[in-house]
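In the previous chapter we treated chains in isolation. Here, by contrast, the input contains two separate entities that must be folded as one system, with a combined length of 660 residues.
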Amino acid sequence: MKTMTLADAIDDALAQAMADDPRIVVFGEDVHGLRTSLFVRFGEKRVRPAPISEAAFVGAAVGAAMAGLRPVVEVMMVDFIGVAIDALLNHAAKVEAFSGGKWKVPMVVRAPCGGGYGDGGQHEQSLWAWLAHIPGLTVVVPSNPADAGGLMLSAIEHEGPVVYLEHKLLASNMLDFLGSGGRKTVQYDVPAEGTSGPVPDKWMPAPLGKAAMRREGKDITLVSLAVGVHRCLEASAILKKKRISAGVLDLRTVSPLDKEALCQAVSRSGRLLVVDEDYRDFGLSGELAAVVLEAGIPVRYGRLCTEETIPYCRELEDQVLPSSKRIVDAALKLMER
Amino acid sequence: MLRSRRFEEAVTDLWEKGKISGEMHLGVGEESIAAGVVAHLKDGDAMALDHRGTPPLVVRGVDLVLILKEFLGRADGLCCGIGGHMHLFSREHFAASSGIVGSAGPIADGFALAAQHLRPGNIAVAFFGDGAMNQGMLLESFNLAVAWKLPVLFVCKDNGWAITTRSQHVTGGNLLDRAKGFGMPALEVDGTDVEAVWNAARQGVEKARKNNGPTFLLAHCIRTEGHFLGYTPLRKSLESMMGMVGPLLRSLPARKGASPGERIASLGSITSLIGRTVAEKYSKRRDPIYRVRQRLKADKSRLNEIEKEVAKEIQQAVGIALS
């Protein structure tokens, strides 16, 4: 075991895969600057900076994947995927079904996501449930370095399209690039365990669609992903002092969703609080409620999500994004009932 | 121009002090384009701006205190602290910005369409960079404007960069020819020369006002501050430098991968990008403010007066915004 940042873990796993499989190519905006180590080691033929043409290069990734390559295509931020959504919605996600299962699209779309550093509502969205809504897309969102590397490997090995989202508060290189810009005068609420941690010496794929119970708890189950997992763990520690045992389930992949782990945890605690940085309405939180209801599990349910356009103002942003304090308040409310 | 420059210098200071969060894209180096184009606008004309929207707003006369307060995330800012510097809106000036590259084109088309219906004689201007010239929606908006004869002036601020990639490295053909290919007049100017921009913009604006369709203006400029404030190669700390160099050196000898020649080539292109970024920071001769100063240097007292006036205005605005 060694220690690595989440940002390095992703690139390290990617480098391991690229060394083993020459079909893996990386392209996207500024990849020579963002992935300098890959750019130097594998050369420009395999790590290729793209024009600001998301529709074209994500679309090209679909074609390239269909024709034998295994592209890892980067979109500067998940917000910008709007420009390229057709390539995912109507092509990457549908080729396998349209071809009667005969033609697959093994590609990864990698994009930073999430807020908490004052970059405004067009640069801080999560959008994982919006993407997971599309049948045929796998959506992965790691919460720590070990998962980040393992999930990148499994995303690359997967035979279908995978959207791989890295939260900017966890990816220290992105936060440095976009949030602080080298300044020591700004501070953001960064969960240390998420940004840096133990990783294996050699990467092994982490299973897609498998949630991880980060903390057992018998009174209430907090379900989240990415930064939210760490906010939940903080909240769980506070709740413990109030003699409430709050479990924390890290979904790790939005789609496929680990319904079994969810139902198991919730049937034990009888209370479910979804903590989701993505938008509340018509999203992941409602989906989790539906899964539990469909399974016939009696549950007290609550959710803490982003409900509006994320404000630029840091104070307002903190009020809009789920925080450990608001998780504690919401959990206490669920305990009352 | 000078107001915009001094304003953004004040913004830089506030950003350095941590009073502004997240990214900060400046329009330093392109003030002459903003000034030369916006000077032709009148009430009812609209502007669709990109992530470097500050100079056109300053030149258009938007309240500096309101912009500053917005950057500070204040509830009494231009957009109530919700928008931030990439998402600046002033309804009374018909000015809207966006951080999505290329989006100014379609929005300007829409502004122009509304002008055609509701405010004949008014026009719309779209400001965007050369990086945006590879964005499908922008090129589609050119065609739409030509097909519908929309009163738009498309202004491409060509600083040679697409985020942190050299544009020429990811762009085919010639931008002027590309615009001409859509069937609209395309003019090319030295964007650091405010008079040249003013003269060229006038042609496009007059044509649009007469409802004779769009014009494309390619204005070459510089980008002295990198993609945004704190852009890694322009940081002064040794720590940042080592953060950049370390991974590169480790990757050079790593087992499996590209040939040594390809690795050296990659390293060479990174080095040249850094060199270019740093060189541009000090490319004084193409600084539009420097150029105007040179032109007006005969009237030194007037220049000094302007400098003083502007410095006072900005200082006051900062004082009010921070109070």
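Chain A has a mean pLDDT of 97. Chain A touches chain B through 56 residues (CB under 8 Å). Compare these points with the single-chain example from earlier in the chapter.
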